[in-house]
Amino acid sequence: MFNFHYRLERNAIGFVLAIIVVASIGGFIEIAPLFTIDETVEKAPDMRVYTPLEVAGRNIYIREGCYACHSQMIRTLRDEVERYGPYSLAVESKYDHPMLWGSKRTGPDLARVGGKYSDDWMTAHLNNPRDVVPESNMPAYRWLLRNQLETGDLGEHLAALRAVGVPYTDDMIANAPKDAVGQANPDTDLATGVLERYGEKTDVSLFDGNQGSVTEMDALVAYLQVLGHLTDAAHTTPQNEVE
Ligand code: HEC
Description:
By secondary structure, the protein is mostly helical. The chain has 13 helices and no strands. The radius of gyration is 23 Å and the shape is elongated. The chain crosses the membrane at residues 12-35.
């Protein structure tokens, strides 16, 4: 055996061929699951796209590095399902470019945090976590309430996402800045447009508590509140029984 390797290393072409064979086996094993991607990704006809305000919130989540402490992927392990809820399905990340599964949990997983707390709680918590969770070591993000949200370029963000496969319509792209304002201002004409384009179940709310101006806090809270609610697939697909 050792003798064989000794001879192989002294034969340049043979060695290169052997490397190619071995590397291709590894490569094939990595690529093979993609052949069955259609069966791997569940069907979820009720899956909706992120609204412009939620896209803006997601961009802020990335900008602030929330993924460094929070994952968005509940594994199939019993303790995770008991703590966080139904495990994450592939289809739930279908419109996530880039995906934000994360690999570190200094804080809890956020895949099902939407609706767990009120908008007021979320706003207070992001403004200063210790106001609501005294022992928290999460940083305070006070500027989110002060910063007005930049809405002018949201149409371009949606168009960029469409280029990588998210089914935004021309109507959604053209109305993106207005819809961002509408989603944070219930009982206005702009809010009606959001429900027409993104569905009646869309969460139209004051988010940061203030009517009128749209802040970065509005966007981030809107995004957190939709986590786990783009589709009901995880709640309706039978999961391994957990007693
Ligand atoms: C340094 C690590 C760290 C960073 C960065 C961080 N968090 Fe946290 N987060 C925590 C910890 C620890 C907790 C648990 C204590 C608490 O609730 O404050 C937490 C809790 C939360 C919760 C409540 C989760 C639950 O189920 O109770 C939310 C929501 C949240 N964080 C959102 C965010 C967002 C959004 C950002 C980025 C703007 C962020 N976090 C950045 C550490 C972090």
